[in-house]
């Protein structure tokens, strides 16, 4: 007698019957896409279909095709609206990693253009739909996004959490892990709350959402190991006592395996203090504006190494000064950097004139425990 899989919904009592062959095929497809069971895979498909039917349709066929501003052996800087590229059927399921820093939902306008926090999700929807289209089933989406203060009050907007909820609940993405980018060089702002009234601390953290189309995207933390601490080096040399610690963690001799480095934390300490180099020289030479919201090369370097292999395609739909494209080129990945501001797109050419050997920023920062400094009364 054939095995059969039955599924029903509370609303209309829909029943699905499948043969044993179809069940095996479905289970295989579920595993390929990173799901632990065919049931979870079916639930995901039903959820995505329900949202898709209620979502407004976007048509970008008649929008202007991005123009190539710069080409290298592995990639291109494109000038134009990234929505055209994201919604082009030719690019469907082509991309291994999207890593980007979209214009934040600020309260005030910046020179590079940005949406108001209250309208951010609606503005972001066509991009979310495009991301889902171009990413491969085992691909990842990494979004660097900062929180903002509500004007006139020392309280925060929730817009960036709304974006995360929308991507997962409406577009079927999975949150693999939150990362937090700590910029030790961040200036104290807003000054009225931090340095004048002194009711808030320095806001030096950006949220970095790592999402994917399946629960198990391509990833390997062996590619992003950090140097062992002096204490760990001593443990590897002298050994460790096995047993259960007071915390409940069991320590075994497996801890003595030398992997060449330790697994990093999800707090990324990277100073954003770049102020010289070929990019700046190029912009000054041709009187081009320097992009005011560049992120440091070490940020895309980390995720490109972590989530892709050589030859994979990395895309930044908000390319800015093409930091992502430059790093991807140096790491042997294919890439596309798409920027709708012509001056910024042209300025990105300067990054590829760098003559120094490529090396990501290597630095050490310490975070003192809170309350360790007691000023005199």
Write the layout of secondary structure elements.
Elements: H1 20-32, H2 38-54, E1 67-71, E2 75-79, H3 82-86, E3 95-100, H4 120-134, E4 135-145, H5 159-169, E5 174-182, H6 191-196, E6 205-212, H7 230-238, E7 243-244, E8 250-251, E9 267-269, H8 278-285, H9 298-307, E10 313-316, H10 323-330, E11 334-339, H11 342-347
Helix pairs in contact: 4-5, 9-10
In what order do the strands lie side by side in the largest sheet?
1-2-11-10-3-4-6-5-9
What is the N-to-C succession of helices and strands? HHEEHEHEHEHEHEEEHHEHEH
Give the structural class: alpha/beta
Could you give a short account of the major beta sheet?
A: 9 strands, mixed
Q: What proportion of the residues form beta strands (DSSP E)?
A: 15-25%
CATH topology of the largest domain: Rossmann fold
> What would CATH call the architecture of the largest domain?
3-Layer(aba) Sandwich
CATH superfamily membership of the largest domain: Vaccinia Virus protein VP39
For the residues shown, what is the average pLDDT? 85
CATH class of the largest domain: Alpha Beta
Principal-axes shape call: globular
Q: Uncertain segments of ≥5 residues (pLDDT<50)?
A: 1-13
Radius of gyration over all CA atoms, rounded: 24 Å
The number of strands is 11
The number of helical runs is 11
What share of residues is helical? 25-40%
Distance from first to last alpha carbon: 83 Å
Number of structural units classed as domains: 2
């Amino acid at each position: 007698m054939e095995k059969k899989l039955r599924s029903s919904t509370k609303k209309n009592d829909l029943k699905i019957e499948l043969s044993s062959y179809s069940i095996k095929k479905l289970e295989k497809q579920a595993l390929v896409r990173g799901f632990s069971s065919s049931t979870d895979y079916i639930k995901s498909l039903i959820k995505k279909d329900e949202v898709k039917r209620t979502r407004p349709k976007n048509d970008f066929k008649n929008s202007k095709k991005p123009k190539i501003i710069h080409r290298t052996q592995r990639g291109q800087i494109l000038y134009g609206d990234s929505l055209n590229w994201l919604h082009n059927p030719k690019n469907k399921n082509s991309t291994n990693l999207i890593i980007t820093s979209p214009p934040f939902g600020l309260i005030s306008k910046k020179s590079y253009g940005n949406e108001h926090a209250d309208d951010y999700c609606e503005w972001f929807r066509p991009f979310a739909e495009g991301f889902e289209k171009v990413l491969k089933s085992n691909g990842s989406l990494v979004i660097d996004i900062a929180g903002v203060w509500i004007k006139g009050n020392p309280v925060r907007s929730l817009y960036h959490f709304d974006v995360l909820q929308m991507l997962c609940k409406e577009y079927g993405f999975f949150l693999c892990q939150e990362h937090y980018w700590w910029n030790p060089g961040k200036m104290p702002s807003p000054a009225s709350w931090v340095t004048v009234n002194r009711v808030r601390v320095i806001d030096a953290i950006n949220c970095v959402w790592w999402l994917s189309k399946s629960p198990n995207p391509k990833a390997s933390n062996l590619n992003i190991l950090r140097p062992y601490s002096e204490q760990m080096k001593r443990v590897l040399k002298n050994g460790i006592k096995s047993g259960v610690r007071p915390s409940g963690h069991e320590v075994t001799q497996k801890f003595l395996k030398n992997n060449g480095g330790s697994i990093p934390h999800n707090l990324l300490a990277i100073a954003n203090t770049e102020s010289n180099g070929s990019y700046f020289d190029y912009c000054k030479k041709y009187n081009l504006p320097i992009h005011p919201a560049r992120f440091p090369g070490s940020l895309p370097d980390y995720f490109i190494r972590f989530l892709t292999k050589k030859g994979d395609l990395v895309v930044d739909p908000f390319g800015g000064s093409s930091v992502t494209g430059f790093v991807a080129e140096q790491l042997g990945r294919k890439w596309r950097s798409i920027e709708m501001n012509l001056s910024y797109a042209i300025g990105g050419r300067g990054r590829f004139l760098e003559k120094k050997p490529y090396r990501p920023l290597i630095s050490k920062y310490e975070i003192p425990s809170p309350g360790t400094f007691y000023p005199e009364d």
